[in-house]
Amino acid sequence: MKTFHLQDASLTSYAMQREGFGLIHSFSRLVWMPFITTMPARYIMYLAEAPKCPSYAYAGIVLLHLVAFVIRRGAISQKSDFRREPNHPVFSSLETIHTSSKGLLAGGWWGLVRHPNYLGELLMYIAWTLPIGLKMTTPWLCLLLLLLTFVVRIRMVENYCAQRHGHGWKTYCEKVRSRLVPFLL
Known about the structure:
Elements: H1 7-11, H2 14-19, H3 23-47, H4 55-84, E1 96-97, E2 104-105, H5 109-112, H6 116-129, H7 138-165, H8 167-175
Antiparallel strand pairs: 1-2
Helix pairs in contact: 3-7, 4-6, 6-7, 7-8
């Protein structure tokens, strides 16, 4: 059966594997994420005028969004491809950690931070919110809510990975110290 472009990668995500398409996932995809991700655009419409920024600022915002998209999509695709075919030649130059259940990718995007997919998503939201500037606070509060959501999800994923991979997960965490933001978190 033909799937949407890159859809197979999302089907192997933690949420789909552990929670399935139940109430939490449905609520997240149909209510929570559409509300949060459209907040900046709704506030720009509320302002009834385009925010005044120099063109280089808009270029920087677009560049930030593109970089964030590449990080998110690249990380998700890299993990999905590694799960599907861990011995593929593409991964021969990337460090991997062997565990009792499956190998862990400790190179590429997953060698930068433990959750580069969330980092990319967070940077995309920042890019969507930057045109508003400081005229409205609600979109920035939504950014904090999104960050809180990621902190909770990261704890869940890491607890699961610690149980599943045992000592291999501990080795991975020693190698890749940052959870979300390189050299900080």
